[in-house]
Q: What sequence folds into this?
């Protein structure tokens, strides 16, 4: 057994819990325009799932599945989506980051005024920006923790 | 000398604390009223906080994302191992 792995009990529990944490992270990101939370918070939850894998399985075993280059490309795609959505608002409507999807069939349903349960298909560009920021935070935090964990050990 | 500086600084802080605005009493609530009454129509989102963060102040969120990107790029540059 490698030195940086934990015991089989911890590894099994981590592998069991991992999909649920990822699902909760996607829930927080996708419901950012309805409930408390959003891209940053959900991204931090998803990154903590990957950090749990790093702690349980060791950084080198995680690196075989997800290199920090690919995580950082994932992060850059999130940032690009954010800026591209902003520029589409600038071109299609009046200003940078204009909410041009309000009233459109995709994400455009305007909710009734006041307190209501909420419609998932609403929010204009807000869900897209939430997903972009969530990708950014997941990729960024996970790649930083992975690189820090890799920097601690010996060279192979 | 250190005590003089401490007394002067503490006097400034106490003076500023006495001059603070009373908690919960607004001078001007036009911005809040506008966002509360118009955010659902203008951004089609129920969560007014998210509509402020990502729509009314979306430029600020872009700056936050840029700060995050810069911090992560710096950490990766310092810590990543380059193959020899």
A:
């Amino acid at each position: 057994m490698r030195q940086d792995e934990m015991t089989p009990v911890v590894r099994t529990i981590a592998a069991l819990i991992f999909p649920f944490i990822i699902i909760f992270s996607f829930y927080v990101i996708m419901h950012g325009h309805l409930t408390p939370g959003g891209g940053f918070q959900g991204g931090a939850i998803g990154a903590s799932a990957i950090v749990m894998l790093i702690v349980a399985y060791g950084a080198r075993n995680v690196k075989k599945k997800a290199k920090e280059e690919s995580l950082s490309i994932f992060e850059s795609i999130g940032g690009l989506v954010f800026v591209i959505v902003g520029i589409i608002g600038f071109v299609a409507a009046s200003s940078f980051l204009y909410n041009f999807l309000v009233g459109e069939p995709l994400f455009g349903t305007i909710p009734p005024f006041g307190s209501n349960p909420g419609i998932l298909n609403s929010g204009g560009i807000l869900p897209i920006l939430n997903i972009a920021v969530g990708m950014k935070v997941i990729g960024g935090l996970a790649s930083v923790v992975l690189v820090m964990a890799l920097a601690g050990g010996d060279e192979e | 000398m250190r005590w003089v500086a401490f007394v002067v600084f503490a006097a400034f802080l106490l003076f500023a604390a006495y001059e603070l605005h009373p908690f919960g009493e607004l001078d001007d609530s036009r911005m809040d009223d506008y966002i509360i009454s118009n955010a659902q129509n203008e951004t089609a989102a129920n969560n007014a906080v998210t509509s402020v963060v990502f729509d009314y102040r979306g430029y600020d969120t872009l700056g936050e994302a840029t700060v995050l990107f810069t911090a992560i790029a710096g950490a990766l540059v310092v810590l990543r191992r380059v193959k020899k």
